């Protein structure tokens, strides 16, 4: 339709639509998803006016026609200085891209208290450690490897008066879906003489890239740590523990 469609807000505009024809041979319940762009050629300026709204158009038995009621205003279109009409001729066009429906999707499952979810890391000769970050071995929980890290001289706002501890997301196990991962963890500095552990809870979405860490800069003050009567530093060793209380696992499933 190239005159304004008043039922589609096209009064004073050119309205243009695309319609599917000869659909009788299609199976019952047919549907075609389309990325639709409509054009008005401007030969004077050697370019096209493109109209689209970015939404996928679903053609089916109930809706065989899609387009735009307000393609271009009649005032602009009929103004010969604009260049859309040359020698009483105009040109319209359509770009129709078929959007294939997805036959698979990602399913995210949150697992509470997953298997093998406690990792213990004992650090020896604490007093001899340098001013740098140290990292544990990687451990697997869910579909992803994790590790702990800390600087014995402090980090960020806790430096140099407090001890930090961070959980880092690493790579993925073989055949896992690499995607952002939820990790919720209890991070502990173990008390080696009692059950009075220092503990914090941390939860975050970890990106696909390795080495992203979340934690705290002050799980314990250095003064309390070095007070051997408190039980956190024993025989010049400390013990960190990570208890992964919830992780996300992503699988590809059919739609």
TrEMBL record:
Matches recorded under InterPro entries: MATH/TRAF_dom, TRAF-like
Residue span(s) of domain MATH: 1-96, 116-244
Lineage, uppermost ranks: Eukaryota, Viridiplantae, Streptophyta, Embryophyta, Tracheophyta
Coiled coil: none
CDD domains: MATH
PROSITE patterns noted in UniProt: MATH
Source species of the chain: Brassica campestris (Field mustard)
Entry protein name: MATH domain-containing protein
Source superkingdom: Eukaryota
